[in-house]
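To assess whether the prediction recovers the assembly geometry, we first specified each molecular entity separately, as shown.
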Amino acid sequence: MVEYQELSPAEWFKRNSSIAGFDNPVRALYTSIREMVENSLDACEEEGILPEIFVLLRRLNEDVYQIYVADNGSGVSGKNIPKAFAKLLVGTKFTLRQSRGTFGLGGKMAIMYGQISTGGTVRVISSKGDGKVWEYVLKIDIEKNEPIVLKKRVIKSDSNWKGTVVSFSISGDWSRARSKVIQYFKNTGIVAPYANIFFVDPDGVLYYFRRTTKKMPKKPKEVKPHPYGVDLDTFSRMVSSSNSKDMVSFLTKSFHRVGKKTAINFLKFCGIDPGRDPKTLTLDEMARIVRSMRKFSFLPPSPEGLSPLGEDLLREGIIKELQPDWCDTIQRPPKSYMGHPFIVEVGLAYGGKIKEPFSLYRFANRIPLLYDARNDVSSRVINQDINWGDYKVKKDSPIAIIVHICSTKIPYKTAGKEYIADIPEIRREIKLAIQQCARGLRRYLNRIERRRIAERRLSILSRYIDKFVESLVSINKTDKKLSEKVKDVMILKGILMDMIKGDRVE
Amino acid sequence: MVEYQELSPAEWFKRNSSIAGFDNPVRALYTSIREMVENSLDACEEEGILPEIFVLLRRLNEDVYQIYVADNGSGVSGKNIPKAFAKLLVGTKFTLRQSRGTFGLGGKMAIMYGQISTGGTVRVISSKGDGKVWEYVLKIDIEKNEPIVLKKRVIKSDSNWKGTVVSFSISGDWSRARSKVIQYFKNTGIVAPYANIFFVDPDGVLYYFRRTTKKMPKKPKEVKPHPYGVDLDTFSRMVSSSNSKDMVSFLTKSFHRVGKKTAINFLKFCGIDPGRDPKTLTLDEMARIVRSMRKFSFLPPSPEGLSPLGEDLLREGIIKELQPDWCDTIQRPPKSYMGHPFIVEVGLAYGGKIKEPFSLYRFANRIPLLYDARNDVSSRVINQDINWGDYKVKKDSPIAIIVHICSTKIPYKTAGKEYIADIPEIRREIKLAIQQCARGLRRYLNRIERRRIAERRLSILSRYIDKFVESLVSINKTDKKLSEKVKDVMILKGILMDMIKGDRVE
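The predicted structure of the complete assembly is given in tokenized form:
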């Protein structure tokens, strides 16, 4: 007898935890820290607060660790805490703007993984700065996907402390996760130079990623869906929830980039009466409208929903973390693919503390991507689309390439957010941005090449001059009559040295 | 004000449909067909029925297709149909045995994708062969993840027809999906030579993948979880649902490969009293037990939960679909990784209709894997671990390598089931199996090499003999005295030919 049973989302994700990056104790530890830090950064940026994030990883026994993350972000109000931390598939209202996370999944997966692997609870302390500090101790009822509240209290506080502290234990493998975790913090430093991040590792070592700017990227606006990106199911739900009495007002009110004139032209294009009440549309008509939307030429989506870093902040971050001799950054104009707007930002850095050739730093919506670089669209551009010789870059040149893609929909190839698909529109923008930066690098490399030549000439000449002067001086010692000449020689040397140094070396 | 809202699993998967392989209209069409066919094969194999599967893909308009799949499988009883086809995360009872599908997701994702992209419904007709045929027309309420029953009726039938028919429409791109779909059917023919599969494509072309054997692989048994693969959450739930009054009976009844003696030794190893009531265990004690389980040497998991094809069936499938000149198959003994048993089966085929060098056919739990071959563990073995020259195989040799891995837990690297992770235990088994087959191939290639040499010798000699005879005959014409000699020469030729042919060519 076949038995049908329902599975809670928590149970499903527990059984398929590799989807969210919890494949093994190494990856799980890295992913958990990353998800908690991303949540903290989001909580700060949401209200334009300069982030102060403190992360402590304590070894409880050989393979169990406690993760403790504290931030000064917006805080979570008391009644929302259980759902926000111990129930999967719950989140803030879905809108079309750039955001770091998968809808309410990452942080809770970390907490659930902790519970599965250690049996422990999660402790959450949070305040919205209203004098009330909430403390909860929670577990996830995995079979029901519901929070279990083990402890709940509210503390009156005189301070206006605002922020969130989360702490839970997890099975992990620090010795093998270490390099990825440190790399993650370092890369976060590049895209969030406005954040102070403290990390204490299980050996008690403090890593401090210091804020070097108070400038923060602007918050993205919410935008309505673009006609290119809407499916029939979404369209019919928009119809049901709309109060518009005619098609023109329905389209203009519900869609991005659809004004009255565009709406009328579009309705003509698909043969629907502009005065038609949307509620009277048949399913076939709605299907026709959605199909026609893909073919009609609307204005491309605007980048209002995006929150790029900007060239200055990105340069700031690169200089802070990589300390190169030379660096330049480029932000490309907004473009779109399949109705989703995107912006590509690229940085190129050379020399200084950079020792490795062709280090690639990838970011998507300000999340560092550390796995599966080889398959990423950026790797393809670097390896296949750029003729580096044209830019005086050699195979062993100490160069770092930083690529940041932001979009309302990042085309990840895996759900674990490891790498970005090879979308032609995106590939093209990355290529153009790298080429633009590389031209600046070529000028710089030409300049240091000229300087090196000049310096070599200087060193040869100056060695020659010294010998010349020395021999003159020794002659002088034996032949007093020549002593007058020595002064002339010294003057000559000065002139020569000035000439050499005056060579265009900037 | 932050708004918290709950998301139904259906809604979540709709927004993250790429997880299950619904990235774009090409992939979606391929994945939908695949998921429906896999469900049909499962429904047949479950009851040991020789599968008869009929798939029809009809073009409804330029990018909308109707998928119609009929099978003679076990059927679904009337009351279960809505949940089984129009509610996500519902499935048959989870057990530890090899199975094709992700827990109740694949087929429903296809149906949901159809609904999202075309607004259509799904029609299901099914019977368990009891004279009652159920017909449902369903939709998924995506916001609530609940089935909506639009039509339901039961027909009394005199025939004992048993099976299921599913039909729904979907947006797709046949012209670009075509090659993958055909490849999928062809590869299914390799691992299911006992199935008759009919496929009619949108142009009306019938593809018939004919059954060539009535032998089916044995059904896998359900096995209890192995101690190596249990997490703390699962362990504590096992404790709650157990009636055992002492630890020894709890361990022996709940776990695979734990007999009384092993249980007592293990309990000594982790310092728990054998007579202890499991319900009195503290969380810390349970955590200690689970940790100790990883370190104690239990017998490896048995392969009872697996259902490999077997060497004969696999050879049957390869010969049927690839029609090579030579073929051999190997099944390796069962092994395990992290508590999960697995068996590797490999086939090697050479020449005949195989024209391409090094074609790799990958299968996991009898599912063909068509995407991302490059990253798969099998590709690594073929490219890095085997010195093909040792086996007389050249770079352009027309050779096909067939790798089938079955396990209660396939270590997929992506949720879309595209490729298998590089697990050392699995890699080693694949390598050994290929080497074993390759030794047979070397013998075969040596044989045909010798035959080719012999044939060349024969052709040179026979050409020479003819000339020789001819010249003798012409001499004969001018010199009548030599006519007697000709007979001798003809006899000599016969002897020579026999000698040449008699050269060891088998």
